Every structure is written in C-alpha cells, then in structure tokens.
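Following the same procedure, the fold was encoded as tokens, giving this record:
***
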Amino acid sequence: MQALNRTRNKKLAEKGTVANRPWLRLRGLLGRSALEPHEGLLLLGTKSIHTIGMRFAIDALFLDVDRQVVHLIHALTPFHISPFIGTSAMVLELPVGTLKETDTRVGDWIELTLAEDTPSKTERVWTEIEKVE
C-alpha cells in the first residue's frame, strides 16, 4: 500500500499493509516496536482506534469513503483511545511526525494504491469500504 496526499502532493507512505479483516484490524501494530519511515497501516472499516498495548506513538489519519481527511491526530501516545469519528471509513496509521512534515490537514484528498494493484483487487477493497458505510 502506498499513500499520497494529492492536495499537497506529498508522500505519506511508500510501503505498508491493509488490514481489511477484523482480526487484522484488532491486531494492528501490536507487537511491533515501531513503524519504519514512510511505512503505514491502513485499517478499513474503522471509526476509532486505540494504542493500548503499543510501545510507540503514531500519527492517525481518518478518511471517509472518498478518501478525504475527516479527522487527524498527531502523536497518539500508547495506551490512548481516539474519539469515534462517525464519517470515517478507514484510518491510516503513520510514523509520528508524518502529518506535520507533509502539512496534511482536514479536507485533503489522499490517493491510496494497493500493493500488487490490480483493478479487481482495488475494486474489491473499495467495495468492502463502501459496505462499512
């Protein structure tokens, strides 16, 4: 998965994974010691996140079904819970400082490209997102 802030023409993530199943979303970044620079985790069907049990802080980008930023959190520290964002369809978790470095703001449009992107795989993932809404 790759993420680009199209509004500001800035890369958010060059590599990452998509958590599109309940177990993958629940596990998230637990057990990891950090996110690498330019790495991200995209949690589909998510309106709130937590860092309970995590060892490091993250930046969090809440996106609607059109991949527009509806909420963001800078440096969400371990053992915290985000607010519930009703308009969120997915959350992109990024290394701390990414949102500040890229000047990402509410209203920005984020382009997401899946690894081994194919029209059928992309369509399947976006269909999953729309079902959540």
Q: What stands out?
A: The CA atoms of residues 3 and 112 lie 5 Å apart. The mean pLDDT is 84. The domain at 2-132 is CATH 2.60.120.1140 (Jelly Rolls). The first helix runs from residue 22 to 27.
